[in-house]
C-alpha cells in the first residue's frame, strides 16, 4: 500500500534554506557518506534563526538544530511529516538526485 503523499510549497525562509542545502550538497566531495551529508545539512540549519534550537548545543558551542528543519525537508521534498535520517536518505538516493529533488521542490513541481 503506497502511503499518501502531501507535498507543500516552501515559504521564503524555506526556499533559502533549501537553496543553501543544495549548495552545501554540491560542495561535498564525491562519495560523501551519510554522516558527511547530515553534518552539511546541520551546518546549513544552524545559520538560520528559524531552525536554531537554543535548548541544544552544536559541537562548536552554538545553538543546535530544531527538528522543524528536517520536518520541512520531508514535507516539501518527500510529501511526508517524517522521514528517514536525511544524510542516510541522500547518500542512498544520491547527492545529485537529492539536489535535483530540491530543484523540483523550489520550482514548485512537487507541490503541484
Overview in brief:
The protein has five helices and two strands; from the N terminus they run ααββααα. It is mainly alpha-helical.
Describe the structure.
By secondary structure, the chain is mainly alpha-helical. Helix content is 54%, strand content 8%. It is built from five helices and two strands. A two-stranded antiparallel ribbon has the order 1-2. The radius of gyration is 14 Å and the shape is globular. It starts with 11 loop residues before the first helix and ends in a 6-residue tail after the last helix.
Q: Briefly note the structural class of the backbone.
A: mainly alpha
User: What percent of the residues sit in helical stretches (DSSP H or I)?
Assistant: 40-55%
Principal-axes geometry comes out as: globular
| Biggest sheet statistics | 2 strands, antiparallel
Integer-rounded radius of gyration: 14 Å
Strand order of the largest sheet: 1-2
* Averaged pLDDT: 94
- Could you give the order of the helices and strands? HHEEHHH
Q: pLDDT under 50 segments (min length 5)?
A: none
Tell me which oligomeric state these chains represent: single chain
- Note the total helix count: 5
Distance between the termini: 22 Å
Instruction: Compute the number of strand runs.
Output: 2
| Beta-strand fraction estimate | 5-15%
